[in-house]
Amino acid sequence: MTPALDRRQFVAGLLAASATGTLFGAGAAEPIKLGHYGSLTGKDAAFGVATRKGVMLAVEEINAAGGVLGRPLAYLVEDIQSKQGESATAVKKLVSRDKVVAVLGANASANSLEAAPVCQNAKIPMMAISSTNPRVTEVGDYIFRICFIDPFQGAVLAKFAHTTLKAKRIALLTAVNSPYSVGLSAVLRQDFTARGGEVVAEQKYTEGEKDFRAQVTALRAAKPDVVAVTGFYTEVALICRQARALGINVPFIGGDGWEAPQLVELGGEAVENTYYSTYFSAENDAPEVRAFVQKFRTRWNNEVPEGVSALGYDAVYLIAAAIRQAGTTDSAPLRAAIAATKNFPGVTGQTTIDAKRNSAKAAVMLAVKNGRSRFFEAVAP
Fold first, then answer.
1. Is residue 140 located within the same domain as residue 157?
2. Both 68 and 17 in a single domain?
3. Which of 249, 278, 307 delimits the end of a domain?
4. pLDDT tens digits along 114-169
5. Is the pLDDT of residue 7 over 70?
6. Model confidence at 80: pLDDT above 50
7. What are the residues facing 38 on neighbouring strands?
8. Model pLDDT for residues 279-295, shown as the tens digit of each residue
9. Total domains in the fold of the chain
10. 348: helix, coil or strand?
11. Does residue 21 sit in the same domain as residue 132?
12. Is residue 367 assigned to a domain?
């Protein structure tokens, strides 16, 4: 895939095909089936629902412009209900029953690690949306991701804590049943200490817990400059509430697992002046970002897109461009075309798929101010 193959030229090519009468007619072309699995219900639903909105917008745009190879895209989705063990079952349905040509998902690394072997064994390309644990793409050569990985995100957080927040002492709070959280904490710990900082306390919790007072009390005793919580928004909001109630007023930081409206809804004033890393800011002034935000708000009742919405949108366009580049939906050439992606311009920035099938791209730090997540700074890979 050449650097010039971007969304704008992709759509322009479809419009040119329309002028020559090569686009699909109503009911005349067999659809190209794209599968998606994610948490549309349950405690992690904010991620799955936001991703789905970005995916649907991209599919609708591509179909309105004429589809891919003269065929419409058909979008099939399976709800994994925020439950462990559901991802593999969902993807087996998409692959064996629905005969999808590619699979999108998941958000949480644990879910992608469950599903990836199914796609690898079936030789169906899978594009993880926001699964940052490096082990996801290590499953095999049919497994890709559209997001950055934990070694980069952990380094971003360590640099931000040490350089921007001027922290010398950090405390870590890790969700032990989350590969994402465990991996992110490991990198943050390593990189922060390499910068001369000290990890003064580490506490653990399990996703689904509600009472974190024992862990928070232990962290308070260590007198950290910054507390890093590497889990997801539901627990993060409760941790911040309980920490503030116990008198911990230092900054809290975390990764992309924080990004959901529910962080502020559940955390209230307790999450003010906290910071997290993610893939995208709707406040970015780039023309393609402004256009995407406007289209998203028009389509989804004035909602502002989140990072996973933008990643889902980019993932569909990247796969569609790879199908067009391959000239077929056959799995081997499609896999090769995805793997050859270089400098693909999306709303989350340029995406290059590296030799390990990971995406090299920039991150942004957001700050929670006055009940909103606001752009704070960008960090290049």
1. no
2. yes
3. 278
4. 999 999 999 999 999 999 999 999 999 999 999 999 999 999 999 999 999 999 99
5. no
6. yes
7. 79
8. 999 998 889 999 999 99
9. 2
10. coil
11. yes
12. no
Domain region containing 156: 151-278
- Sequence-ordered list of residues with C-beta below 8 angstroms from that of 108, at least 6 positions apart, any chain: 39, 44, 47, 130, 131, 178, 180, 232, 257
Q: What is the CATH number of the domain that holds 17?
A: 3.40.50.2300
**248 and 322 belong to one structural domain:** no
- Does one domain contain both 166 and 271? yes
The answer to whether residues 253 and 271 belong to one domain is: yes
Asked whether residue 369 is domain-assigned, the answer is no
Strands 32-38 and 102-104: parallel
| Neighbour tally for 369: CB within 10 Å | 12
In angstroms, what CA-CA distances link 171 with 215, 216, 325? 11, 10, 48
Q: Which pLDDT value is given to residue 378?
A: 83
The CA distance from 11 to 54, in Å, is 17
Q: Do residues 70 and 25 make contact, with C-beta atoms less than 8 angstroms apart? A: no
Highest mean pLDDT pick, 208-212, 282-286, 361-365: 208-212
And the tokens for 10? 């992709």
Same domain for 296 and 193: no
Helix (H, G, I), strand (E, B) or coil at 354: coil
Provide the 3-class DSSP secondary structure of residue 37.
strand
Look-up of token digits 């895939």: 1
- Which stretches does DSSP call E strand in the chain? 32-38, 73-79, 102-104, 126-128, 143-145, 169-175, 198-205, 226-229, 252-254, 275-278, 344-346, 349-353, 359-360, 363-369, 372-379
The answer to whether residues 78 and 116 belong to one domain is: yes
Strands 344-346 and 372-379: unpaired
